[in-house]
Known about the structure:
69% of the residues lie in helices and 0% in strands. The radius of gyration is 18 Å and the shape is elongated. By secondary structure, it is an all-alpha fold.
Amino acid sequence: MDDELRSPARRLRSESGGSPVYERLLVTEDREELAEVLTANGQPLWARELAALRLGRAGDRRAFETLVLLLNHRDSDRCVSAAHALYALADPRTPRAAAALATNELRVAYALTPVRLLIRLRAPESAPALITVLRRRLAPGDPYRRIALACVEGLGALGDPRARPVLDAACSHPALAAPASAALARLSME
């Protein structure tokens, strides 16, 4: 078991309450058995998550929908585990799904992990989504500074010149001024 599965496996073992189903899902090599957990009625969330993580890391696209749902979960540990599995899955639908989740203002409190996934993916959808999210976070009194900071840093890492106007605007926000200036400097180097 690699490090990216070890941490969620410990958390899910605790959630399972020592269920023998947990142990079976953790060790089985039968992808059909794992995929069945994703669609069977009455499966607990921990079982669906474990099956989706295992399938996603194995490159089985049947895990995609479950992983996207977990990417937008209120539990940040679930979001992070799903993001790692989605990255490993390398499904071409992932950037579009992550962009949709990141830009959904009704779920903005849960946008940090999709934003970080977009940065890691470096997909064509990444910079436009981050620009949109950052522009919204620059509104007076917006409480989501961690998301704004992730967007600023991500836009600097992506190096997309379309980000220049929103990064210029971020420079006028005290909490974002230094990272936005650094991101703009990175754009100038590219």
